[in-house]
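The instructor's notes for this session suggest beginning with a concrete chain rather than abstract definitions. Hand out the sequence below and ask the class to guess, before any prediction is shown, which regions might be ordered.
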Amino acid sequence: MTTLLFLPAGDAGLRWLRFGDTGLMARGEGVPPGGDPVVAVAPAEAVTLHWAELPARSQAQATAAARILAAEASAAPPAELHVAVGSEGDAAGERPIAVVGASAMRGWLDMLAAANVDPVALVPAPMLLPRPDEGYVRATLAGSGVIRGRNSGFADEEGLTELVTQGHPVTPLVREPLEEALIAAAAAPALDLRQGPFARRRRRFAIDWRLIRRLAVLGGLILLTSFAISLVRLAKYEFAASALEERADALAATGLPRGETVNDPDRQLGERQRRLIGPGLGFTTTTAAAFAAVRSVPGTEVTAIDFTDLGNLRLTVAAEREALATDLKRALERAGFDVKASVFQSAGGRVTGELTVSRR
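After discussion, reveal the predicted structure:
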């Protein structure tokens, strides 16, 4: 919704019209209630309107050119005038120029500020009417008559109107077309007096504590969610580690003697491995080296074997002659072992004795 607030003219005070999607919704006098956008309307007799071809390159250039034209057409000093340039134009490039006293502008805005009203625009009353293709249009706004031509706009006064129109047709606007024109002009004013020093000030930056509290709550929820996700992951990893540990215990139990209680699978499997392999280089490595040495010395054989808790391998060997037993001892020593030989005895045409093989 938009409210048109007509500024005082003559004996009349503030008057307002409120428009919505369905057209005119309410009207009244004084300060309009509610917080809808307000478009203030300056009295037609307080503003002089001109049309001229102005530079379209920039608003500053157009305003400067309009000031020169206004100074030439007005008897008042330029410093006491406020000049505003509109956006409406025609094929010839002519744009509307509004000239109003700077003191009048300050008075209107001060009065509205005292009533806690900050209008989004301040429009001369004639500029609310549609621009006719030919002739003039007339309407009554807030009890005052207003005339609008293609390149003119003024208050409807007896004698002045006939002088300006010079017999051209003046078409009155009926209710529905007038309401449509007012709604369109309020939505996109063709000329806004709030320019230059009287432009609407932007609101200063203000901290929205409500928004900050909302963002803080959202940030806290995000942190809690992230923390909950981390806890779920830790719990998942813990459950997976427990499952792996249980599987390791079950697997270790298969490698231990039947009926043995599983306390520390690592340690128990290591102990069993040492028991099976034996100390030193182990039973398998030592025995394999001993039989390789026996095969390298023809005429020797192993008749008995014993592996002690100290990791020593006792071999009972038989040889065709004592020299072969000595060759076997040297072969084992070349294989990297310490070898101690017992006294070999001769019986039945062969010599027998013991060789103790240990890790060097």
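Then share the key points. The first helix runs from residue 59 to 73. The mean pLDDT is 86.
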